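A protein record pairs a chain with a discrete description of its three-dimensional fold. The following entry can be read in just this way.
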Amino acid sequence: MNMSHTTDVILHAFDWPYAMVEQRARQIQQAGYKCVLVSPPMKSLKTAAGTQWWQRYQPQDYRVIDNQLGNTTDFKRMLETLKQYGVYVYADVVFNHMANESSIRSDLQYPSEDDLKRYQTHGNYYQAQRLFGDLTQPLFERDDFVEAFGIEDWQDSWQVQNGRITGGPSDPGLPTLRVCPHVIEQQQAYLNALKAMGVKGFRIDAAKHMTLEHLKQVWSEEICQDVHIFGEIITSGGATQPEYELFLQPFLAQTRLGAYDFPLFQTLFDALESQGSLKSLVDPYCFGQALSETRAITFAITHDIPNNDVFANLVMSEEKEWLAYCYLLGRNGGVPLVYTDLDTSGITNAVGESRWVNAWKDEKMVAAIDFHNRMHGNSMKILEASDDLLVFARGEEGMVVINKSKRPQSVDFTTKCQWRDLLSLESIEPKNGRCLLKIGPHSAMMLITI
């Protein structure tokens, strides 16, 4: 697998229309992002009044892109524009299940009979949006699905990987695809079509629900060539946690794919709590509390956390989330993912604005990404670590200081260089070969030599 872009910062433009991503291409590039992860480019429900974000995760057909965020034409235009700015496009793909349409029909044909008729009635439009395949025929039929039952025991890997994700006992849930030659063939044809258009990475949605057999068959060596691929396997922490042992550990052991670093997220979340210690961030990988740096997608928040009640307790306060980003963008290793949305969650910030809408272009975020990009390839050395203070160097020309306590702290170190904090643009001059830094409560510095 090509690992060449596995340190570039990814912008997760969650639920942004493809045309909006295209319009903001120059801004995205100027902010320092090298990749943009977009919502699933396939056919899913769209209505004149709009649809909820989760509809994007309920595929009706892979052979055309036609959903609330745009169509194949919009998607191609976005790809071409971002390419001009040297920014890669990563696509979110949903291969575990198809859409739950049980409220309107009882059969398991995708797309539905009505949609197939629509393809014929509006033949010119759908042919223009076609990625592959014969649109007069269904993509999947009943035989392509496993027997229906809802997942009840989330610690039973067989149930989790064969049962349906449901909203409760009365909900028939999302029809789970069977691992069979036809399903694998269609999924690979879809990936190859996206690769041919220029897509450079894939996020595997609900990877925890897919069997290793399914993952290995779809993501063949040929498919993995020259693209960055990572799975979403939600766990409540690292080694010793049941979900880690059941799902993430086997995924890492038996595939070469990357994954969301939920173990590091949990370590970071706990470290930033008032009773936690920043010492746990010194070398979390060593203790099984972070993934290896070549496979980790690191984050302070993912789209599931603010948009699903079950994860709401993992939304950090604004100041903690910011310190988490300073650590993730300051450290060496992993691919940082920066989340932004169009206010899907309704959560607001201290000044009453939608919390993540402008997070991607916040001045401090852009400065932290600048630090990350400048320090690319520099080794990391811990200089000081206590419960409340973490200081580490990046080579000879970078340093990160994180103070999570309620009081200011000072750090002094030997140096002949003048330094600048990219976050405040303040310069620090050495006196008699030493620098004294004053760092405010709940704040961070990302310093470079000048």
Summary: The domain at 381-449 is CATH 2.60.40.1180 (Immunoglobulin-like).
